[in-house]
Specification:
By secondary structure, the chain is an alpha/beta fold. It contains 11 helices and 18 strands. It has 2 domains: about 200 residues, Rossmann fold (3-Layer(aba) Sandwich); about 90 residues, Rossmann fold (3-Layer(aba) Sandwich), CATH 3.40.50. Helix 3 links the parallel strand 5 and strand 6. About 40% of the residues are buried.
Length: about 400
């Protein structure tokens, strides 16, 4: 795709190029050989000079086949769980959700719906093509219907008060059409939407380079997210950086009266993105070289190295650097991942309670937001490895 999917400009500037990255970071494999055999493609990240949107111009949606093997839940971390609870309480209070109808597009295994379901009586509809629960899991919910499909206008008989869509929009190759489909399904209704996406400002400014993954087509900045929602006809009520500035949360409405004015200087916000993007390319390669050198030194000293965090950041890190050390294991709290293998590398997921037997010399934390939580876990186990933050 050689035009911006947000504003259709063809004035693009390359900011990073990564070769041979697995098409899925968040897929789980039962065998190491299966994990190693996953197809790989390139990331050719460009920034649009018109709206500040960043995207992979070599992205191919058809290469991605979502299934029950896909697993990206963060709800097993107490740090993330605190954030999710705070968000759920905010939504319940802000939108007076009692006895309302809520649609969650891209609900995954339904973890956030389960949380909302435990706090408020509503009718919930979760859409996810990869959803395939067993009977036991289904019994954990009340008033929740899961639909293993993509949400579209064929479900227009469901009349929502609130539509949630968290960490989905960045994976869609035609985001404008995606939002238009939601409007088409509800064009004669009044409804609110909440979208949450990774924040490219954080990626660029704080060098969160491990977030560069193939399955993510778009890297939204505040300016490009604002432009997108305005362009298709939504009224924007709020747009903010959350979760230690790693996420963007946009609140918008359709067919509702103009009851407030949201102040947003799109020009100033675009300038921030361009400023960070200008220095990103050089800084990216410097950071890659920095970690390559560290890992080679630790490996030469025969240190046992583990990374903690087997989500997209961990998988990206491993696919870049596993050749420089023995990457046998990855620590992750998500029990659905344990005994599974990581895409492109074949390292095995382990639970923290397996660490005493492994006895690592060095643990590399993939996301600084979890540093305090991880160090507390290590202290409980009386383990004292060197701790680094990627």
């Amino acid at each position: 795709m050689n035009k911006c999917p947000i504003c259709f400009s063809d004035n693009l500037i390359q900011i990073a190029y990564l070769q041979d990255m697995p098409i899925f970071c968040n897929a789980l494999f039962d065998a190491k050989e299966e994990a190693l055999a996953i197809p790989k493609k390139n990331l050719n990240l460009n920034i649009c000079s018109s709206c500040g949107h960043i995207f992979n111009i070599e992205f191919e949606q058809k290469a991605l086949k979502y299934s029950a093997k896909y697993e990206n839940s963060l709800h097993f971390s107490s740090t993330f769980d605190q954030y999710a609870n705070k968000l759920a309480d905010y939504l319940i209070d802000k939108y007076n959700l009692k006895n309302k109808t809520i649609i969650d597009i891209g609900c995954g295994r339904g973890d956030f719906l389960k949380l909302l379901n435990s706090k408020v009586d509503c009718d919930f509809f979760g859409f996810d093509k990869s959803f395939s629960p067993d009977d036991t899991y289904q019994k954990e919910f009340k008033n929740v219907k899961f639909i293993s499909d993509f949400y579209s206008s064929k479900y227009k008989d469901i009349i929502p008060d609130l539509i949630l869509c968290r960490h989905v929009l960045e994976h869609v190759d035609f985001p404008r059409e995606f939002l238009i489909e939601i409007i088409e399904a509800n064009k004669d209704k009044s409804f609110n939407v909440i979208f949450e996406v990774p924040n490219s400002l954080w990626t660029l400014r704080d060098m969160g380079i491990w977030d560069l993954i193939y399955e993510r087509f778009s890297y939204f900045s505040p300016s490009s997210l604002y432009y997108l929602f305005k362009a298709v006809g939504f009224k924007i009520n709020s747009l903010k950086q959350i979760y230690n500035n790693q996420f963007l949360l946009i609140e918008a409405s359709y067919n509702k009266p103009e009851d407030n004015i949201f102040e947003f200087n799109i020009y100033e916000e675009k300038q921030k993105v361009f400023e960070y993007a200008n220095s990103f390319k050089k800084a990216y390669y410097e950071k890659v070289k920095y970690w390559k050198d560290i890992l080679e030194l630790l490996n030469k000293a025969e240190k046992k190295i583990l990374i903690w965090g087997g989500g997209s950041k961990g998988v990206s890190f491993l696919n870049l650097f596993s050749r420089y050390y023995n990457a046998d294991y990855v620590v992750d709290l998500n029990p659905r991942k344990h005994r599974k293998f990581i895409a492109g590398v074949g390292a095995r997921f382990v639970h923290p309670n397996e660490l005493p037997a492994i006895n690592p010399d060095v643990i590399i934390i993939m996301n600084p937001v979890y540093k305090e939580e991880i160090e507390a876990e290590l202290s409980k186990m009386k383990l004292h490895p060197q701790v680094l933050v990627a």
